[in-house]
Amino acid sequence: MKRLGAIVLGISKDSIASHKKFAEKFNLPFVLLSDPKADVMKKYQAFGKKMMYGKTVEGTIRSTLVIGSKGNVIKHWPTVKKADQHPQEVLAFLREQAGKD
Length: 101
Fold this sequence. Notes:
Blueprint: E1 9-12, H1 16-26, E2 31-34, H2 39-43, E3 47-52, E4 55-60, E5 64-67, E6 73-77, H3 86-99
Parallel strand pairs: 1-2
Antiparallel strand pairs: 3-4, 5-6
């Protein structure tokens, strides 16, 4: 990701201790941030009302944002449905952006 000028961060309501265990278990190469009150997540529409098993619930919305060098959102995937395929989609977008420089 660094070659593409990107820094990857994950964020959830989970505790720092929980993140540490998760990152170690899955050997994650990026930082996980803890947002216990979901303040930041709400600002980026990553926490709120969603459908789960046919019911409306409030919780984490798995989403991805690309934030540009000026702090603006340049791409937003509001829901990630196929987590196994999504990283390739994000990489393709980052490669496309890198080609514009």
